[in-house]
Specification:
89 residues; alpha+beta; rod-shaped
Length: 89
């Protein structure tokens, strides 16, 4: 019985030692895959502080993968409706 338990323990130890752990490239690929989505929609607000005054810009942005994005300014009125589109080129 003791020999059987010892043999099982040795086999478990050997199987644990021969198991491969992920390398740095595998980990970075998994992180990149987790960080990108098929599509996204964001509404954001940016406050710009200058010496004399501060101003707030609001915009809505859409993206598709890592190649396409589109932003539309919602405010201030001087920027309202302006658009910014980017393709990965």
């Amino acid at each position: 019985m003791k020999k059987l338990i010892l043999m099982i323990a040795v086999l478990l130890l050997l199987s644990h030692l021969t198991a491969q752990s992920p390398n740095a490239d595998d980990i970075l690929r998994a992180v990149d895959k987790n960080m990108t989505t098929k599509s996204a929609k964001m509404q954001t607000r940016m406050i710009v502080h200058a010496r004399r005054a501060s101003r707030t810009l609001e915009l809505i942005s859409y993206s598709e993968g890592t190649e396409k994005s589109f932003s539309e300014y919602l405010s201030p009125p001087t920027r309202e409706g302006h658009q910014n589109a980017e393709t990965g080129r």
